[in-house]
Amino acid sequence: MYGVLFEVLRRYVESTFGETVWSAAVEVTNGQPLEIQTRQNYSTRLLTRIVSAVSEFIGLPEEDIYYEFGITTVQYLTDNGFRSILQVLGLSWIELIEKDSRFDQNPSLLDVSAYVSEKQFLGLLPFHLLLTKDMTIRRAGPSYLCLRKDILGQEFTKCFQIAKPKTNPTFDEIYANRFTTFELVLLDQSSSKSKSSKRTTGPQEKCRFKGEISFVEEWDMLLFMGSPL
Hints:
Elements: H1 3-17, H2 19-30, H3 44-58, H4 62-79, H5 82-89, H6 93-101, H7 118-123, E1 128-131, E2 137-140, H8 142-147, H9 156-159, E3 160-164, H10 171-176, E4 182-187, H11 189-192, E5 205-216, E6 221-228
Helix pairs in contact: 1-2, 1-4, 2-3
GO molecular function, one term: guanylate cyclase activity
Domain Haem NO binding associated: 116-229
Protein name: guanylate cyclase
């Protein structure tokens, strides 16, 4: 089963029942904490066992958990651009679920990278940033480029400020806070040049974005996926 579904289940359980319930369910079923990689392959049996454990802990029927989990999954995938990806692949949500039910037998069925390239995949996410270890903006969503055309190849701090959480804009610190919701401020292009100007005005805010950070192991980069505030 595709890792993104485990990530959605984790978010649903933690937001609805609390982090303790998720941690306890994973501990009982997996024997250790589960670090989820959205593109990694996982056993379908592990997910069903986690749902069973959550059901037992909170006293809610498994059918109710699966129902809410399904609604959350569709919303999450839609919010993160997967509807567009399915259109590219020529799939419906039902066909996606059918493919995922056969995932253990053939993991490549749901591997987006088998159908679309990295550039095509990221191009479907209008407000994304891909950051290298030296905090260079490797890629940016098309909507960012409409707002500010010069950000590709720039240092992250020349184009953005982190409003939330309170953390230094370094790769390691952002990685350490990757399970926290981030709020980024896009700076006006003139702000990047203000340091060389004699004027001492502060950076001018262009707009803000709220989203989440993921570590893409295959690329060894940080991926921000957000939306405007």
